Amino acid sequence: MRRITFDLDVLRTFVTGVDMGSFAKAADRLGRSTSAVSAQLKKLEEQLGMPVLRKEGRGMTPTPAGESLLAYARRLLDLNDEAASAVRGAELAGSVRLGIQQDFGEQMLTEVLGRYTRVHPQVRIEARVARNTELMALLDGGKLDLALAWDNGTAAPLAVEVGRLPMRWIGPADTTRLALDLNAREPLPLVMMDAPCIMRTAATRALDQAGIAWRIAFTSPGLSGVWAAAAAGLGLTVRTDMGLPPSLRVLDVHDAAGLPPLPDVGLRLHRAEAELNPPAQRLHDIVLQALTS
């Protein structure tokens, strides 16, 4: 059997194109021409002797072979990037203070910070999981180097937008716990974070514009309280898909019939200073890569 040695640069193009849903966008991100990207994908298919992409509508989607390759490609690229970071930053030491929005706490702590600590064991990380208002106050007060927070609409010259995520109507996974009837005379019960809250404002504004009566049935200063109350069937809540526990589910078209559409919300990675110290800059790059790859 002929042995294949994959070109990691080609695999990165393949993964980036699939993740972005467009190989033209991938070409822009990777600083290549579309013809160069096409040549790389052709080389990949020639190596394998089978197609990894097929046309679907105006775009391309992975074939079954491409789906299988995609999983291995991600692992190879992660290992490559981790090895490169370890070699380049073997002597990196010091400390970095990171603030994380509650929705991302588990993902960031287990995946990104775990990876960072393995590569840079001499760096001390202080992580704070909190709400947007607290994170911004800590950042402004010089108590954080980095903060991952929702876009609250204010100017942020030292922040980069990681992306935009759709807000969702969310209810209990056990459908018997909450009967949703928008035709009833009773106001729609909502489970929300204490004000001020971007998601809460978006939900009530959308309901007001749709002429749907609502009431706040439960509030909590923390996300865990919101998750518990919504899972118990005390009302609907609004968040993104991030960090959704198995006791809850995003309402589908049938469940949410009559509920108004919700806007997207931006996610920003803030930095306290234009020039970060080396440990903070390295963590900034790893967080950004994890959320955009």
UniProtKB/TrEMBL annotation:
Q: What PROSITE patterns does UniProt report for this protein, alphabetically?
A: HTH_LYSR
Q: Where does the HTH lysR-type domain start and stop, copy by copy?
A: 6-63
The entry lists its GO molecular-function terms as: DNA binding; DNA-binding transcription factor activity
Coiled-coil ranges (or none) = none
Q: Among its keywords, does the record have DNA-binding?
A: yes
Q: Out of the domains of life, which is the source?
A: Bacteria
| InterPro entries for this protein | LTTR (IPR050176), LysR_HTH_N (IPR000847), LysR_subst-bd (IPR005119), WH-like_DNA-bd_sf (IPR036388), WH_DNA-bd_sf (IPR036390)
Q: What keywords sit in the KW lines? A: DNA-binding, Transcription, Transcription regulation
Asked whether the UniProt record includes DNA-binding among its keywords, one would answer yes
Q: Which family does it belong to?
A: Belongs to the LysR transcriptional regulatory family.
The protein's name is: LysR family transcriptional regulator
